[in-house]
Design a protein that fits this description.
2 copies of one chain form a homodimer. By secondary structure, chain A is mainly alpha-helical. Helix content of chain A is 74%, strand content 0%. The first copy, chain A, contains 11 helices and no strands. In chain A, α2 (25-41) crosses α3 (48-55) and α2 packs across α7 (111-123). The two termini of chain A are 31 Å apart.
Chain lengths: 210, 210
C-alpha cells in the first residue's frame, strides 16, 4: 500500500516538474501559440516560424528547445494533458472520476479543443499527428493510474475488477458522444455515467443471479 | 408490460419485414456489392454503374429500386445493421449485451467492416457519408431499445437507471478501442466490460457510502 502511494506521488511529482519548466512565461507562450497554430493550420501545414511570430519570439528561441516540429507539437499536446487531465486527488473514486470527466469535457468544449478535434479528424488515423498523440498515451495513462491506485489503496474497488476500466469507459463514452452527437456531455449525465460505472445498472435483487 | 412487449415485437417485426425484402437474391447481391464498392472506392467516388457491374446486374435494375447513390448506400448500411446488430433475445440483459457486443466486434473485424471503418475516417465527420450514417441512428437504436425494453420488462434494471446507457457505454468502449488501439476487443475483455456495466466496480461494502 505504501509502495503504491509512493509511486503515485512520484508520478504526480514528475508532472509537477514538467509543469514548473512550462511555468516559464516564454515556454508557456510558445506552447500556447503552438496549440493555436496547430488548431488553425493543422499539423502538416504548421510552420515553426508561424508559431514564433504568434508567440512574439525569435524562431531560434523555439528551435533551441524543440529542434523539430514533432518535438514542439508533442510538448504542446503534453501541456494540455498535464494541466487539465491529471486530476486532483478528491479522496474518493467517485470524486476523481467526476473531476477526470469534467477535465475531458472542459478540453472538448474549449475553442482550442474544438479546433484540435477537427484537426485530428481531418488528418486521419494514419497521420503523423495521430502518431504523436499515440506516443503520449503512456504519459496520459499516468494520470489515470493515479486515480486507479488511489481507489485501490482506499479499498474502493471490487475484488477482481480491472482497475483501468472505470477511466477507460468514462473517457470512451465522452469521446464517443463528441464524435457521434457533436456535443459534450452535461454535468447531470456525467454523474449518471459515473454512477453506472461505480454501481452498475443491475437491480440489487438480480445481482446474485449474474 | 404487455404494451412494451408488443412494441418490441413490432420493432423486431419491421426489421424482419426489411429482411424479407432483402432476402430476394438480386437485392442481397446488389446491397453486398454496394458495401464492397463503398469499402473500396469510398462514398464520393462510388458509381452506381460499378455497383451494378460488381453485382452482375443491369444498372437500371439498381436505379429502379434506389434512384440515387444516397438511397443505395443508406440501404446497404441498413442491411449491416439489420443482419448483425439487432440481437437475439437471450432472456437476460447480460446475454443480450454480450450478443450486442459480439455483433459489433464481428462487424469491426470483418474485411468489409475494416475497410468501411477507414472509409468513414477518411471521409470525415462533415461528409455526406457520415450524414447518411447519422440518419440511420434512429433505426439502429430500435435494436438497442429492444434490449432495454426486455431488461425493463424482466425487472433487471435498478430503479432510476438510464435504460439506454448500458448499450451506449458498451458500444462507445468497443468503438473507442478500435480507434485508439486499432484492435478489436477479445471475448474475455468483452465479458469484463459487460460485468462492469451490470455490477459496477465499487466494492460491495462501499456501496452504501456512494
Amino acid at each position: 500500500m505504501q509502495a503504491t502511494t509512493a509511486k503515485r506521488t512520484a508520478k504526480r511529482g514528475s508532472a509537477k516538474k514538467r509543469a514548473l519548466v512550462r511555468g516559464e512565461p516564454v515556454v508557456r507562450g510558445i506552447l500556447a501559440a503552438a496549440l493555436e497554430e496547430l488548431a488553425s493550420a493543422g499539423y502538416r501545414a504548421l510552420r515553426i516560424e508561424d508559431v514564433a511570430t504568434r508567440a512574439g519570439v525569435n524562431k531560434t528561441t523555439v528551435y533551441r528547445r524543440w529542434p523539430t516540429k514533432e518535438d514542439l507539437v508533442r510538448a504542446a499536446l503534453l501541456s494540455v494533458t498535464d494541466e487539465k487531465i491529471i486530476p486532483p486527488d478528491t479522496g474518493s473514486l467517485r470524486g476523481d472520476l467526476l473531476a477526470f470527466g469534467r477535465a475531458i469535457i472542459e478540453i472538448q468544449t474549449s475553442p482550442v479543443g474544438q479546433s484540435l478535434f477537427h484537426v485530428f479528424l481531418a488528418e486521419g488515423p494514419d497521420s503523423e499527428l495521430m502518431a504523436i498523440a499515440r506516443s503520449l498515451r503512456a504519459v496520459q495513462e499516468a494520470g489515470v493510474r493515479a486515480i486507479v491506485e488511489g481507489a485501490v489503496a482506499r479499498g474502493e474497488l471490487a475484488p477482481g475488477a480491472d482497475p483501468m476500466l472505470p477511466c477507460e469507459l468514462l473517457a470512451a463514452y465522452l469521446k464517443h458522444k463528441m464524435i457521434a452527437d457533436r456535443a459534450s456531455v452535461e454535468e447531470a449525465q456525467l454523474a449518471r455515467v459515473v454512477d453506472v460505472i461505480l454501481l452498475g445498472v443491475l437491480h440489487p435483487e438480480r445481482r446474485k443471479q449474474g
